[in-house]
Write a structure and sequence with these properties.
This protein has a domain of 54 residues. Helices cover 52% and strands 0% of the residues. It is elongated and about 70 Å long. The N and C termini lie far apart (58 Å).
Length: 87
């Protein structure tokens, strides 16, 4: 993608419409990407999500990094009890 051009966001409704059009008209990924001006492999990714998780899967925001798995902080009372126990 050219420098300085922001990533485009697509609504879940648009994604569903693209996948259903592709299935209904039996279009290839290249044809659907050309018709809707989508980047390479975008339609394939949406179709995979649609088939695995259903329409609801296309409503999930999947951008950004996943959680690092950092453990949650202890409650204040538990932390104070542990400190007192250590002393």
């Amino acid at each position: 993608m050219p420098k300085g051009k922001p990533n485009k966001r697509y609504t879940p409704e648009f994604k569903i419409m693209v996948v259903e059009t592709m299935q209904k008209e039996k279009l290839s990924y290249k044809e659907i990407e050309r018709r809707f001006e989508l980047p390479h492999r975008r339609a394939a990714d949406w179709e995979r999500i649609y088939l695995e998780e259903g329409k609801e899967g296309l409503y999930v925001e999947r951008r950004g990094r996943k959680s690092t798995g950092r453990p949650p902080k202890l409650k204040k009372e538990v932390e104070e009890d542990l400190i007192a126990e250590m002393q």
